Amino acid sequence: MKKTKFLLFLLILIPAIGFAHPHMFITSQVNFVWDAGKLTGAYVTWKFDRFFSADIIQGYDTNKDGVFNKTETDDVYNNAFIYTSNYYYFIFIRQGATRSSPKSVSQFSVWQKDGILFYRFYVDLSAYPAEKLYFAVYDYSFFCDFRYDTQKPVSFTCDTTVQPQYSIAENKNYPVYYDPFDTISDNKIYDKWKPGLQIYYPYEIELRYNYAAASSK
After folding, report:
1. Domain ranges across the chain
2. pLDDT tens for residues 163-182?
C-alpha cells in the first residue's frame, strides 16, 4: 500500500477535537466550458500546499524526472485521488434548493511546478437545465481548507454569444449540516439541523449566462 494511502487515512481519522483546524490547504480554479452555446462541463484545478505536494511527488514520481508519466498518473489516481470520491469529489452543484454532486469525474491529470502539486479533472454539467447554476468546491468537515484562487478563480471557454458572468459569495440561505463524529465510511450531509450537527456555509460560484444561446444554434 502506498505511503500516501496511509497518510490520507491517518489525517481523515484524526480525532474530532481537531475538526475545526484544516490539515490540508488547496486552491481551486474552475474553467466552465460551453459547446454551441450549451454548458457542457467544468475543468477543476487544485493547487496543493507544499507538504501534501512533497508527499505525492516523492511517492509517485518514481523516476524523479519532475514529470508524471501515464503510469505515474494512473498511480496517483488509483492510490490518492480516488479517495476524494468518498467526499463527493468536494464538488457541490446547486440549482434552486437542490444540491448534488458528480457521481464520477474524468480526464484526470497531475503535474508539479517548483515542488507544488496540481490536479485537474473534468466535471460533466451537460444534464443540468439551462438556468442559473451554483458551483462550489469545499470540504464541509474542515479537514481540507479549499479556497478559490485570488487572481483567476473562474474562467470561461465559449463563444461570444454565451456572455457568461460569475460572482462568488458565502451562501447562508442553503447551509450544509454534518456530523463531525461520523466515521470515514459515513459521510452523510444532512438537510436539516439537529443537536450534535455542525453548520457550514459554503462559498459558491454563481454562474450566469445567456441561456438562450444554445437554442439559437
Report:
1. 24-211
2. 999 999 999 999 988 887 77
Strands 24-35 and 154-157: parallel
pLDDT in tens, 121-175: 999 999 999 999 999 999 887 778 999 999 999 999 999 999 999 999 999 999 9
End-to-end CA distance of the chain: give it in Å, rounded. 51
- Residue 25: strand pairing partners: 145
Which residues, including other chains, have CB under 8 Å from residue 179's CB and lie 6 or more apart?
188, 190, 196, 197, 198
Q: How many CA atoms lie within 13 A of 75 on its CB side?
A: 17
Residue 49 main-chain phi, psi, to 5 deg? -70, 165
3-class DSSP string for the chain: CCHHHHHHHHHHCCCHHHCCCCCEEEEEEEEEEEECCEEEEEEEEEEECHHHHHHHHHHHCCCCCCCCCHHHHHHHHHHCHHHHHHHHHHEEEEECCEEECCCCCEEEEEEEECCEEEEEEEEECCCCCCCCEEEEECCCCCCEEEEECCCCCEEEECCCCCCCEEEEEECCCCCEEECCCCCCCCCCEECCCCCCCEEECCEEEEEECCCCCCCCC
**How deeply is 202 buried, as exposed, middle or buried, from its count of CB atoms within 10 A (0-12, 13-18, 19+)?**
buried
